[in-house]
Amino acid sequence: MKAIVVDQFGGPEALNFRDVEVGEPGSGEIRVRHHAIGVNFIDTYHRTGLYPNPLPVIPGSEGAGEVVSVGAGVTGFKPGDRIAYQGTIGAYIEERIMPAAKAVLLPDSIDYETAAGIMLKGLTAYYLLFLTWPVRSGETILFHAAAGGMGLIACQWAKSIGARVIGTAGNPDKVALAKANGCDEVINYSQEDFATRVRELTNGKGVDVVYDGVGQDTFEKSLDCLRPMGLMVSYGNATGPVSVPDLGILARKGSLFVTRPTGAHYFAERPALLAGAKALFAAVESGAVKPHIGQRFALSEAADAHRALEGRKTVGSTILLP
Predict the structure, then answer these.
(1) Model's pTM, two decimal places?
(2) What is the separation, in whole angstroms, between the first and last Cα of the chain?
(3) Please, which of 56, 101, 197, 301 could form a disulfide with 297 given CB 3.0 to 4.6 Å?
(4) At residue 19, what are phi and psi to the nearest 5 degrees?
């Protein structure tokens, strides 16, 4: 099978398109033929070694396709079933072996491309909005990178709950897209200081919670956006890792809370995964979340997809097509 393989950590040029052996599923595993594969910022961390894995490694943590075969002890899946998954590395390949426990059955109402574009981002939005800080109607949130794949899903979903949603984006086109997808206000951070603008928009009070997948460039200013005892949710580091060398800053800025959640912990148990997927699929089917796939690349063009993602030239979800 053709796959994208990282033999040495590095830039997009480290993504090699070549043949690999797949084999047959073992106990508790299924073999899946991909119809679409999601691209996420975490894939770049696996490529560069920021999140190291033994080499060689096939990146990618999200996909959708059909079951080809099942291993011993697998129940709930059979050949021909439509499935989707997130959170298990190895997706940049035509067919793969994966743990059956990581897959969920895909409703007929959701096509493969949509599923590949929402599983990781949508389930991340689910735990952020419903578990990390259960957003309530009337609360105000700040969501960075509101026009990205995560941002569009999360902002729509938060708006459907009844939250006031303030987003940030980097150019006028992205501002317009975020406004059309759940944001009440969108701050163009390339033209104005987002912390100052958030204070203006909230009459000096600040927001209840900040969701930040950007990282180093936005973290400290995001603390200035929070109300006293508000929560800073740092769930990614697209611009570099975040550090808080002086915990006293949280006291000085309002007895703030900070968390660094991951889906690996929120979905460690299968019932939690199934509950999240059920909620996500229901949100898509009801129209509360309207997925937006902004870019499609052939699997062989994964390096170009990474360049676009890291160059902030993407909107919505990005997918690879085998």
Answers:
(1) 0.93
(2) 10
(3) 301
(4) -80, 140
